[in-house]
Specification:
Length: about 210
Amino acid sequence: MNKGRFITFEGGEGTGKSTQVKLLASYLSLSGVDVVQTREPGGSPSAEEIRALLVTGAADRWSPLAETLLFYAARVEHWRQIIEPSIARGAHVLCDRFADSTIAYQAYAGGLDRHMVEMLHRLVMSGVEPDLTIVLDLPVDEGLKRAASRRDSETRFERKGREFHERLRQGFLDIAHRFPNRCLVIDASQSIERIHSAVLAALKLRLRLE
Ligand code: TMP
């Protein structure tokens, strides 16, 4: 049985993660690979309930600490119910956001101590890490413009102001810089097709997946 891999997509608002997750999932399924497409916050029934609390309502509805604990409550459920069993049966799991988002949003942008979030991750998730993390990078104004053109109600983080989103972008770039073996930054201002090709190249080169 092939080893299941855990691949995450990260980035700020409007960077096109969900589109790339979908494209990669259909590419892998067409190649006959067992693939699971999922997202955070959410991805399992109980975690989706927590998602609703996190992504709607006033921008200051939760403090960064309360948010972090809610994201981790959702993550623990999602991991246990979906991600871990899928990887164990040999599936490749593609996840739209994971723990790097908590470091970037709640610590770098939200002001919470990064080491505390890292400690929480070690404590409740045994420090689990993706095999590959694609970081989609886009200038803040462009990302927020794209996100605003979507018609949905999940705008709580989009409304946090430009400076928050600048810190967020730098946070993701810093994470990628600190974990170069796991992370790859892709310029998200390119066309959807070019980004998809860059993702496929990364899978080949870094994970030896065809
Ligand atoms: P999405 O729009 O990519 O589905 O993500 C929902 C929002 O939740 C998005 O604005 C980013 C935010 N988020 C965090 O702040 N911390 C986290 O740990 C995760 C997973 C998401």
